[in-house]
Backbone:
């Protein structure tokens, strides 16, 4: 699967933030700046919506993805020197929990913006 217009636009907004700020800030700063860029681009989103997590039908906790964009794409942000497999696993878990077919893992912490387009193999919309 390839990037669609929405994921392409989200990445573009993230690039604007990274080009302006560079690396070295806390994740919350990038999150606030990305929200500004998404608004200016006319892209609707919600931030940190709690999603219940169930195990064998029993509620065991909640998770919060950084962004749910246009009720189609989960966006998880990081501000790390390098992304690792554990961060990719976390983002994939959000897709499963939210029952979304695709998401973006974006890292502002490296010298160049890093992003990974991820898919939920369990989604009927994949």
Residues:
């Amino acid at each position: 699967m390839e990037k669609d217009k929405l994921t392409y636009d989200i990445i573009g907004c993230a690039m604007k933030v990274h080009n302006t700020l560079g690396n070295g800030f806390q994740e919350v700063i990038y999150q606030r700046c990305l929200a500004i860029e998404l608004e200016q681009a006319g892209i609707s989103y919600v931030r940190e919506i709690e999603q219940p997590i169930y195990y064998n039908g029993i509620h065991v906790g909640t998770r919060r993805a950084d962004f749910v964009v246009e009720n189609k794409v989960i966006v998880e942000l990081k501000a790390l020197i390098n992304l690792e497999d554990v961060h990719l696993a976390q983002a994939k878990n959000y897709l499963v929990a939210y029952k979304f077919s695709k998401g973006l893992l974006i890292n502002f912490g490296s010298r160049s913006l890093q992003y990974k387009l991820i898919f939920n193999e369990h989604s009927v919309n994949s």
